[in-house]
Write a structure and sequence with these properties.
heterodimer; A: alpha+beta; 5-stranded mixed β-sheet; 4-stranded mixed β-sheet; 19 helices; about 30% helix; globular; disordered N terminus; B: mainly alpha; 15 helices
Chain lengths: ~625, ~300
């Protein structure tokens, strides 16, 4: 899942103009005296049941779609993680404490059993709110829909992957699904990246306007069913009373919605999953236009629209003390406590390896090493990220710390820290005439070890273009700094800020070799609903998400070994070997991962927030 | 008067048709899916005029297309956003008028006095401050410091709820009003000052009319002409919403919806909303002309 939308929540609409305006207001604010921190509620220690928790979504991202089988345009954190998963549980739940692992306790099925190329899924005893059990047929309903419509309408679809890597899937009775995979894949990979996509759908949804259908047994029927369901999924006002959408197997159901975009969820008393002894009874999802608007409301807890859980813009967060991961709250948020969550993601900018001019340059490892040396990850973290960031050091996120990260890569850390002289040396050593504050040119064309490299003609200038998503403060600052650093070694970058959708549209619009862009950055890639960072989605040329068309046969071989590993030890070994190799190949430009800063009122217990960004308000409770 | 009215109505109809033609032309340049959605796949390849008539027929039946995100008919989004915007911008315009008209007259009557200078200075400050700065100042002082009002707009979905939530409605309305007051007051002052120098005012005074009667019966009516014109011209803004204020106060209306739609390449919404605003502008212009004619009979005789 592209995560720039998530980033957008924090920074998207905080432009420089607003920043200047705020700075200009400093005197006025000072004249008014310090803003009151408000009176913090006295916080007890006794959990109580009931109560309402108001949850502010990512600014600009409203809950707008209820059908969990959704296209990319609706496939975002607000719709999926913060809404649909509360109503309709995915087959397998990911996010266990601070780690992005499978949580069997919250999954609808027991962990899959693998036997050769046979996979067996055994359902637990979950029930829909209409009293019907969650059955194997409900799982087949999803699988068949993905077979019929996955390539067109499922935002999590990876070409050639599930369900096109199975040859057979069928229900055995009402509680078991068996499938045969095309080859013996890694079990971890198949569970975490393939089965993780499934959300069982109730039989009541298997219909069209004309009446009942049979998508659960006949994939050919699924397109009509999909079209029917999709046609009603965006009508918020109809959700609460819809005979389709009111059937849930999760702990929440829609009580009502408002034209202002508020979504009121009430606890599903028929929820058959693990129920907490104490929990809130109502969960209200509230949209916000901008970070500023949300931050203003957070600072006014006595107002009409109190937020119980919301987001703190990074630029408003006090910088943590050295050695600390949490800098605490601004003084104006005395009623809240701050949780710092590092989403399970990878941030990077992309090279277009197929650009007719820049492509041959980007294909040179020495150039990528030089270019990475111009990125000041620590500076971005300490500066615009206010300390809430972690450097990206390879193709797997280094934080949250997981078993997936290669110990060797972790130990090596950021090997390409800001080093202008290194960049200059690398370019000079490979046939470039380096002209600081000018434009470098290739003066020694050829493929030798001291020459510019294959496809680069003599006289070629290091004159590059870059597009990046607008509205993200630290992305803006980081790009400006990159442009400045590059100019110091004679690489001229013309960076253009564009709306997120324009950047993504341009980059993903190239389905084959193209020269419409050279460098691009939109934010990050979140590992969801493919939770295992095995790299086939981002760094294999067969994937639609390898948007820069990075091609490396050895990389492909190493990824293949990972996906084919049949034991945990073999998997870990293969995955580490792949990372150890690819980390220094720098297939993309590593940029730091940013934290999500969550504010919650002091008397509301929300537990630990998962890096998968899945939330569990059914476990939240007030203290008195 | 009837001939004048007929002429203006016909002109307004022509403008509305031109607006629909422009909007349709833009829509036709958009992605094929948007085009086919509005004019139908069968008509997608037919002649421009036939496509236009087909689309116009659907528009007249209330079909402005379907939004991609959120997946709702454009008319549904319009039905949600337009009333909220009308409350915000309409109320702020009304308040601006109620303040600016007397203020302008007072300035004109007390020309070049301390009162005139004080009002002018104050309104210039309001006018000169961008709405996001003014809004922030008001939020910081009145919401976060004094806790008199809320820092965001009303969140109730019904118009009644929005109107009665005065605590949350005050600051966004005030932000828009303050800037508008300056504009209206300036026009009002200028027009009233001119009227006060007219011979008919002297004549009224000579006939023994009291100052109050002179101002209300003679000066006010004649000074309202430019304000009415200005009001008519502001109809598109009233319908189009106030993006900055809507976003600052978390009060999504027309402006915010169009902005989001533009960012997301949601062409049906952009064009549907543009159509409504364009039609509103034409109607606003017509109403301004009618008001102008009512206030100044010379206009209808000259133009008819």
């Amino acid at each position: 899942m592209l995560r720039a939308l998530k980033r957008g929540r924090r920074m998207r609409r905080r432009g420089l103009v607003a920043g200047v305006a705020l700075a200009g207001l400093a005197l006025l604010v000072a004249a008014c005296g310090p803003v009151s921190a408000g009176t913090a509620d006295s916080v007890g220690t006794t959990p109580v049941s009931g109560g309402v928790a108001t949850y502010a979504t990512e600014p600009g991202l409203n809950v707008s779609y209820i059908f969990p089988f959704e296209t990319g345009s609706n496939f975002n954190v607000s719709n999926t993680n913060e809404f649909q998963y509360l109503l309709y549980r995915p087959l397998y739940w990911f996010g266990e404490g601070t780690e992005p692992y499978l949580d069997p306790a919250l999954s609808l099925a027991s962990p899959p059993v693998y036997n050769g190329q046979q996979v067996t899924i055994s359902l637990k005893n979950y029930r829909w709110s209409n009293g019907q059990p969650v059955t194997a047929q409900d799982v087949m309903f999803w699988i068949n829909m993905q077979i019929a419509d996955g390539n067109n309408d499922w935002g999590g679809q990876v070409a050639g992957d599930f369900p096109f890597d199975i040859t057979d899937a069928h229900a055995v009775g009402s509680t078991e699904v068996t499938m045969t995979v095309t080859k013996a894949y890694s079990q971890d990979w198949f569970t975490d990246n393939e089965l993780s996509q499934i959300t069982p759908m109730p039989a009541a949804w298997d219909r069209t306007a004309a009446g009942a259908s049979s998508c659960d047994t006949t994939p050919a029927d699924c397109t009509a069913v999909y079209n029917y369901l999709a046609s009603t999924a965006g009508s918020m006002s109809a959700w609460a009373k819809s005979p389709i959408w009111s059937i849930v197997d999760g702990p929440w159901r829609v009580q009502r919605t408002t034209s202002a975009g508020w979504v009121y969820l009430t606890y599903n008393n028929r929820y058959s999953g693990p129920a907490a002894a104490h929990h809130i009874s109502e969960f209200v999802i509230v949209p916000f236009t901008t970070e500023e608007a949300e931050f203003n409301v957070l600072q006014d807890p006595q107002g009409n629209s109190r937020i119980d859980v919301g987001y703190l813009p990074t630029v408003d967060a006090p910088v943590p003390a050295p050695g600390s991961t949490n800098g605490g709250n601004p003084v104006t948020l005395g009623d809240y406590k701050l949780s710092v969550v590092y989403p399970w993601e990878l941030s990077y900018a992309v090279y277009n390896y197929t650009d007719s001019t820049a492509g041959p340059i980007f294909r040179q490892l020495y150039f990528r090493q030089a270019f990475q040396s111009l990125v000041d990850q620590e500076g971005i973290i300490d500066g615009p990220m206010h300390g809430y960031g972690k450097p990206v050091i390879g193709p797997v996120a280094s934080y949250p710390v997981t078993k997936y990260l290669s110990p060797q890569v972790e130990a090596a850390g950021d090997q390409w820290e800001l080093n202008l002289s290194n960049a200059k040396s690398l370019l000079t050593a490979h046939g470039w005439s380096v002209v600081p504050n000018g434009v470098d040119t290739c003066v020694n064309a050829g493929t030798g070890p001291t020459q510019c490299g294959a496809g680069i003609k003599a006289g070629t200038a290091l004159n590059l273009s870059m597009i990046y998503a607008a509205g993200v403060d630290y992305m803006y600052s980081a790009t400006k700094e990159l442009v400045s650093n590059a100019s110091l070694v004679g690489i001229k970058i013309t960076a253009t800020e564009q709306p997120f959708d324009t950047v993504v549209g341009t980059v993903f619009g190239c389905t084959s070799a193209c020269s419409t862009w050279q460098l691009a950055e939109w934010g990050s890639w979140t590992y969801s609903p493919d939770y295992l960072p095995t790299g086939e989605e981002l760094f294999e040329p067969s994937s639609a998400d390898d948007v820069g068309f990075y091609t490396n046969a050895h990389n492909d071989t190493l990824i293949g070994k990972t996906l084919d590993a049949r034991s945990t030890a073999a998997f870990d070994s293969a995955m580490y070997a792949w990372q150890n190799y690819l980390a220094n190949q720098l297939p993309v430009i590593y940029e730091p991962n940013a934290a999500t800063l969550i504010e919650s009122v002091n008397n509301l217990h929300i537990g630990v927030q998962a890096p998968t960004l899945n939330i569990n308000p059914e476990d939240w409770y007030y203290l008195k | 008067m009837s001939a004048f009215l007929a002429r203006r109505v016909l002109q307004a109809v022509a403008v509305v048709l031109l607006v629909t033609l422009i909007v349709f032309g833009l829509l036709r340049l958009g992605p094929g899916s948007d085009r086919a959605q509005l004019v139908g796949t069968g008509a997608a390849h037919s002649a421009f005029l036939l496509q236009y008539l087909s689309w116009l027929g659907q528009v007249l039946h209330g079909n402005l297309g379907f939004s991609t995100t959120p997946a709702e008919p454009v008319t549904t989004l319009l039905a949600n956003a337009l009333p909220r915007t009308l409350v915000l911008t309409g109320l702020s315009t009304l308040i601006a008028l109620l303040v600016a008209i007397p203020a302008g007259i007072v300035q004109a009557v007390r020309r070049s006095t301390a009162t005139d200078h004080a009002i002018r200075t104050l309104t210039y400050i309001w006018y000169g401050m961008p709405s996001f700065v003014l809004g922030y100042v008001l939020i910081l002082i009145f919401a976060l410091h004094l806790h008199w009002f809320g820092p965001e707009g009303p969140q109730d979905s019904g118009i009644g709820g929005v109107l009665t939530d005065w605590q949350d409605l005050t600051l966004p309305v005030l932000t828009l009003s303050l800037a508008t007051i300056a504009i209206f007051a300036r026009y009002m002052r200028s027009a009233a000052a001119d009227s006060l120098d007219e011979e008919y005012v002297e004549a009224a005074r000579a006939r023994g009319a009291g100052e109050r009667r002179v101002l209300l019966r003679h000066v006010l009516r004649n000074s309202l002409v430019p304000v009415v014109t200005l009001l008519g011209l502001s109809i598109p803004q009233i319908l189009g919403g106030a993006l900055i204020v809507e976003s600052l106060f978390n009060f999504p209306g027309m402006g915010w919806q169009i902005w989001q739609a533009a960012l997301n390449h949601n062409l049906p919404v952009v064009l549907g909303f543009t159509l409504v605003i364009g039609v509103g502008a034409a109607i606003g212009s017509l109403l301004a002309d009618i008001g102008y004619a009512l206030l100044d009979p010379r206009v209808r005789y000259q133009r008819a």
